[in-house]
Amino acid sequence: MHIVYPAVVAALLFSIGVYGVLARRNTILVLMSVELMLNAVNLNLVAFDVWLRDRLHSGQVLTLFVIVIAAAEVGVGLAIVLAVFRNRRMIDLDDLRDLADPAPLPSPDGDGTTARDPARASEPETAGTAEARRGGADAARPAGVSPAEHAKATRRGEAIP
Amino acid sequence: MNEAVPSYLSPSGQEIVFLLLGAVAVGSALLVVTTRRLVHAALWLVVCFGALAGCYLVLTAEFVAWVQVLIYVGAVIALLLFGIMLTRAPIGPSTDLDSGNRLVAAGVAVATAAILVTLVVDGFRTAYADLSPGQGSAEAIGGSVFRNWVLPFEALSVLLLAALIGAIVLSRTDIRGR
């Protein structure tokens, strides 16, 4: 087998992962793109291990380690995403701007971002924003929720004093 | 390694199978990053990881292929689907999955792909590996892990435990900081 084939497939997968990380807004989709990039690296490791006929099987063992680390990463990442969702009621990366400058400059580029910028700029970046957003989402929620969701929501409401 | 490299114009059966699986993997990965439905993205990721497991099988890395199926297709996708469910993502198509910098992202990705593919093709044009079965069997990999890689293996088990505890602490609501 020519080593070029797995290497090219891995390079394409990595680039697709880069696109996904940069272009997606939903945090879970970004995590999926990170998984794609890790898998591209795994394919490279396996291909070069087979090519070099490593006696220690370094490439394949390292692939197993990367898989384990990816599992741990996605576990902790999803826990963080759930914590963010619990506090904010949304997980869009573009709107999580608490660590940004308090008065963001209007972005010079055109489509899409400038339409949201005035609302974002007029919003005070305090802790009250999250509370208000959560309150608004809570008020809107019980319209069409299933009983299981409602039970979960009430349980969560009891858990937070 | 470099002597008697077969021509690219007469691909072997293994190479044809690998290229087909690679095309499936790349195509489903493209769908993962472009689809408008969150759940479909997770399911296309299953296709991508399954095709990659097939690629590992063709490359004679059997054990890695089964671990890929077990952990990625089994555990990670299930975890991602749980995340999608718990964040109350809409089931139908949603319009706001892409951010405003799509074009910039596409440019960066195309540039990355061009550079990497050019470099790889230029660097490994003459690299050829004879595939002989048994190199990546569970026996060989297990012996290697428990003979030469014991310390990283144990460190990784501690890391997994720490990640597990961290995920539990982060996702429970009745644990308060002092």
Structure description:
Chain B: Its EC number is 7.1.1.-. The complex is a heterodimer of chains A (161) and B (178). Chain A has helices spanning 4-23, 27-52, 58-88, 113-122, 127-140, 147-159. Chain A contains 6 helices and no strands. Chain A starts with a helix and ends with a helix. Chain A has 2 domains: 1-96, Helix Hairpins; 101-161, no CATH class. Chain B is globular. Chain B contains 6 helices and no strands. In chain B, 69% of the residues lie in helices and 0% in strands. Chain B folds into 2 domains: 11-94, Four Helix Bundle (Hemerythrin (Met), subunit A) (Up-down Bundle), CATH 1.20.120; 137-178. With 178 residues, chain B is an all-alpha fold. Chains A and B meet through helix 1, helix 2, helix 3 and helix 6 of A and helix 1, helix 2, helix 3, helix 4 and helix 5 of B.
Percent of sequence in beta strands of chain B = under 5%
Are there runs of chain B of 5+ residues with pLDDT below 50, and where?
none
Q: Averaged pLDDT of chain B, please? A: 89
Number of strands of chain A: 0
**Main β-sheet description of chain B:** none
Oligomeric state of this protein: heterodimer
For CATH, the homologous superfamily of the largest domain in chain B is named as NADH-ubiquinone/plastoquinone oxidoreductase chain 6, subunit NuoJ
Q: Considering DSSP H and I runs of 4 or more, what fraction of the residues of chain B is helical?
A: 55-70%
- Name the helix and strand elements of chain B from N-terminus to C-terminus, one letter apiece: HHHHHH
Computed CA radius of gyration of chain B, to the nearest angstrom: 21 Å
Q: What's the overall geometry of chain A? A: elongated
Number of structural units classed as domains of chain B: 2
CATH topology name of the largest domain in chain A: Helix Hairpins
